[in-house]
Amino acid sequence: MSSILELIHSNDVRHFNAGEVIIEQGAKTNLLWFLVEGAVEIVKAGVCLATAAQPGAVFGELSALLGGNHTATVRAL
């Protein structure tokens, strides 16, 4: 069985510089993001809740699946 990273390898891969916002808290994008490489921080109301650096980490899934606004900001580290 292929991993998600193998499946998305040939699709639209975007690169972000450190400090760039990938997902903005309160915005509605209907997008689902997968971390391929690097690291991100998850920030809610100005407070860093977590960081992630594991390839294959998923972001924006609740908003994309439920059709709501993003509940946190995800920023490239």
What are the SSEs and their pairings?
Layout: H1 4-8, E1 21-23, E2 33-34, E3 40-44, E4 47-52, E5 58-59, H2 61-66, E6 73-76
Low-confidence stretches: none
- Biggest sheet details: 4 strands, antiparallel
Biggest sheet strand order reads 1-6-3-4
Tally of structural domains: 1
Please give the count of helices. 2
Q: Level of helix content?
A: 10-25%
> Which class best fits the helix and strand makeup?
alpha+beta
**Rg (C-alpha, Å):** 12 Å
Protein model, in words:
The protein is an alpha+beta fold. It has one domain (4-76): Jelly Rolls (Sandwich), CATH 2.60.120. It has helices at residues 4-8, 61-66, and strands spanning 21-23, 33-34, 40-44, 47-52, 58-59, 73-76. A four-stranded antiparallel sheet has the order 1-6-3-4, with no helix packed on it.
Describe the structure concisely.
The protein is an alpha+beta fold and 77 residues long. It has 2 helices and 6 strands; from the N terminus they run H-E-E-E-E-E-H-E.
Question: What features would you highlight for this structure?
Answer:
two-stranded antiparallel sheet; 77 residues; Jelly Rolls; 14% helix; alpha+beta; 4-stranded antiparallel sheet
